[in-house]
Amino acid sequence: MPAKFTRKPRKGRKSIIPGFGLTMGFTLAWLSLIVLIPLSTVFIRAAGMGLEEFLEVGFSPRAIAAYQVSFGTAFAAALVNAVFGMIVAWVIVRYEFPGKRIFDALIDLPFALPTAVAGIALTAIYAGNGWIGQFLEPLGIRVAYNPIGITIALIFIGLPFIVRSVEPVLADLSSEVEEAALSLGATPRQVFTRVILPTLLPALLTGFALALARGVGEYGSVIFIAGNMPFESEIAPLLILTQLEQYDYAGATAMAVVMLLVSFAMLLFINLVQAWSRRRVGA
Amino acid sequence: MISLDGISKRFGTFDALRNIDLEVRDDEFLALLGPSGSGKTTLLRIIAGLAFPDAGRVSFNGEDVTDLKVADRKVGFVFQHYALFRHMSVADNVGFGLSVRPRRQRPRKPEIRARARDLLELVQLGGLEDRYPAQLSGGQRQRVALARALAVEPQLLLLDEPFGALDAKVRKELRRWLRQLHEQMKLTSIFVTHDQEEALELADRVVVMNDGAIEQIGPPEDIYMAPRSSFVSGFVGDTNSLPVTVADGVPRFHDRPIAVDAAGVAEGSARLDFRPHDIALDGDQAGSLPMIVTGAYRTGGNWRVEGTVSGLSRVIEIDLATDRPPPEPGQRLALRITRGRLFPDEKARP
Amino acid sequence: MTASVYRKSGGARWLVAVALTFMVLFLVLPLATVFAEALARGFEAYGATLTHPDAIAAIKLTLTVAAISVPLNVVFGIAAAWAIAKFDFPGKSLLVTFIDLPFSVSPVVAGLVYVLLFGMQGWLGPWLREHDIQIIFAVPGIVLATIFVTFPFVARELIPLMAEQGRDDEEAALSLGASGFQTFLRVTLPNIRWGLFYGVLLCNARAMGEFGAVSVVSGHLRGLTNTMPLHVEILYNEYNFVAAFAVASLLALLALLTLVLKSILEWRFGYHHGSAGH
């Protein structure tokens, strides 16, 4: 280098916009205090238990049954939502019908309505003497107080995740693309399965995973309609709460760790799907 | 006078600027011209104090301002996409710089408003004070951004691609107007552009940049007529480039000697650059290039004729006067290069 | 705008019918039920339930909790978005993932972590008891749990918005001599106001409606640590359905108000929020 470089290279001064130290410091401090440190206590507690005890209480028969109920119902609800949520998104993006704007706004109701309110309302509808339950009961169909009821609550909770994930992709998908496929000789069915569905797939998967993750951990909307019978209709979050109320901290901690690991796995999955989708369609 | 001394800047592993030296004279209108990624905008931002060099020094009138931030340098910066504050009226945008001054130096509100109105008159937008940026055309927004930058009475005006976002006709009008405004105000100004026509038309001097370094500095005429590198001659104006071999002081294209002075050019392979208008047609076959015409179209007062030369994969473009009909495709022309420049061959391209 | 090739096919009407039935069944019906049940015994009973001291205490507590947690999340959201959107630094996407984390944690687990930290059996439990500070089964615990579950709302809304707006406006303001604080107040804040309002709206709805996390840390002390959603549960479990639905109807009105304001933002101001994930 020429001799005129008397000054040392300045490092790390990338932006003249002020406030990085202040805002970053506050962000990290607040994030650590509210989220990271509290969450890590569960893992540290669990680590202190030893593997054998952890497996014993974290995967007791009752806990396994509770996981099965939570995952099974959340999966079923997410599947139902994947189908009907896509139809709803399709109809809202593509068709005009009276009250469309109101329905469009109502899609977000599950985000805005407190879960406990949703829970008691759904129970009132589907209980044996409820608005819909009274017609189903004579047919021998019981909806409330069993896993079907849980699934119904989780369909309510999960609907906006699918619709709001799929909707923008569907709106972006110009009709030119469909017309191009048609002009190349594709049938409407082929246009759907070969052009539209593959485009929607990443968004659909993301929405599905978001709905599933939310459903597995959901508590408020479920407990009223669930029946809460151990081994039958007891969800994992309720069992954690029950153990906590009985001062069984070990059991609650172990189950919480299992639930958290599952959440992280799903978060990772969602991030991978989005990275894959970005790579593929560059959006 | 503004001087840059050994400015270097890296982004990660990418050398955005390597050891740039540059002096900007008082009152001059200077263009930083180069392709995207050449470092011209980074250099402008370093002069403004919006970015800081990893090494080197920036001084204004002998005073070292390297560590001063943009607010303390008394520069006006016009952003490529104008960066007008959407929620403020045109007058509030123009008056913003005055209204954020410390209370003691801050003019009173009516004064700020009057000053904004004067500046808007200057940029020919009188009467639009109460409009919002969204209600203006692209050219009007550009002029509001200019008025806003001038409101703080800068000692230096910096413009980043000032016409980049405008359509061709508006661009041309605004260019002429900006040139006049500069002559009227005599404010040292630097603008960044990738459009050679813009640089040649507006600037007193042009700085041609490539790959983080300065290729050439000079008045527009020199840049066009006496390019110092193959890059400059290729980037500024249309150029044909022939791979030649220099032997015994004579450049040859496929053993065909070409009558261009090769004094001072090293023996071996080189590039011969010539402009489309630096040719003559003559019947003499010796020392001329045979070109097969593939097409012709009109560009202003000339025929732009395209054709191929055997042994060269790229198309050759030449200009012919329109006093005769254009040559037919397939016709054979004998070209004599009347003025060309030889450059050492950097990359061996066919 | 979009002329779908499916528009004229016979299935269109059928699809609209399926979608509408689904939405009526899962969205309209539950909402209607809340109000129908709340008014099942007439307006007088409705009014009487809502003026009961326990109900009023629950309403007050819910408002207090929201009044503390929402502003804190606004400050955090703005700070996080400023740092993340206006600057480049390594580990940015990891930080964003951490900020999103509370969305994927079960509310019950969220409550549990605070019990493990501050409860009698928790790490800081003995120390807190010595100094006579109560967090669990008291208002501070409810506030903490609420901040946790609403943590990402404002930040999530602002990060993509501020990233999309870039740095030009701030640089322009700084080049005109504005200080950092003036730049934020007069340029950045007006630019993000609709996004901020949107984030606050959703954050507030969740803060007032949170049930699971609050349920774990509250201890359900009537008149003391009972928020509105918890009060709904107590009344419901006592088979006092009209009262339960009456309190629930207030929360449902809050949800409707949230949706109306949100729609106004979207329709009138053309605001499109960045993410689907909450």
How would you characterize this protein structure?
- The complex is a heterotrimer of chains A (283), B (350) and C (278).
- Chain A has helices at 20-47, 51-58, 61-94, 100-106, 109-112, 115-126, 133-136, 147-172, 175-183, 188-217, 220-226, 236-245, 249-281.
- Mean pLDDT of chain A is 89; it is low at 1-12.
- The two termini of chain A are 43 Å apart.
- Chain A contains 13 helices and no strands.
- Chain B is an alpha+beta fold and 350 residues long.
- Chain B is 24% helix and 34% strand.
- Chain B has helices at 40-48, 90-99, 109-122, 138-150, 168-185, 196-202, 220-225, 230-235; strands at residues 2-11, 14-24, 29-33, 55-60, 63-64, 75-78, 156-160, 189-193, 205-210, 213-218, 240-247, 250-253, 256-257, 268-274, 279-281, 289-299, 302-309, 316-321, 332-337, 341-344.
- In chain B, strand 7 (156-160), helix 5 (168-185) and strand 8 (189-193) form a beta-alpha-beta unit.
- Chain C is an all-alpha fold.
- The chains are: A mainly alpha (283), B alpha+beta (350), C mainly alpha (278).
- Chains in contact: A-B, A-C, B-C.
- Chains B and C meet through strand 6 of B and helix 9 and helix 10 of C.
Read across the widest sheet of chain B, the strand sequence of neighbours is 6-7-8-3-9-10
The overall pLDDT average of chain B reads: 90
- Any idea what the shape of chain B is? elongated
**Terminus-to-terminus distance of chain B:** 45 Å
Q: Count interface residues per chain for the largest interface.
A: A-C, 102 and 103 residues
* Structure summary, number of beta strands of chain A: 0
The biggest beta sheet of chain A is recorded as:
none
Contiguous runs where pLDDT drops below 50 for at least 5 residues of chain A: 1-12
* CA-CA gap between termini of chain A: 43 Å
List the helices and strands and how they pair.
The complex is a heterotrimer of chains A (283), B (350) and C (278).
Chain A (H helix, E strand, L loop, with lengths): L19 H28 L3 H8 L2 H34 L5 H7 L2 H4 L2 H12 L6 H4 L10 H26 L2 H9 L4 H30 L2 H7 L9 H10 L3 H33 L2
Chain B lengths: L1 E10 L2 E11 L4 E5 L6 H9 L6 E6 L2 E2 L10 E4 L11 H10 L9 H14 L15 H13 L5 E5 L7 H18 L3 E5 L2 H7 L2 E6 L2 E6 L1 H6 L4 H6 L4 E8 L2 E4 L2 E2 L10 E7 L4 E3 L7 E11 L2 E8 L6 E6 L10 E6 L3 E4 L6
Parallel strand pairs in B: 3-8, 3-9, 6-7, 7-8
Antiparallel strand pairs in B: 1-2, 1-4, 4-5, 9-10, 11-12, 11-14, 12-13, 14-20, 15-19, 16-17, 16-19, 17-18
Helix pairs in contact in B: 2-3, 2-4, 3-4
Chain C lengths: L10 H28 L3 H9 L2 H34 L5 H9 L6 H12 L6 H6 L8 H12 L1 H14 L2 H8 L4 H30 L2 H7 L9 H10 L3 H28 L10
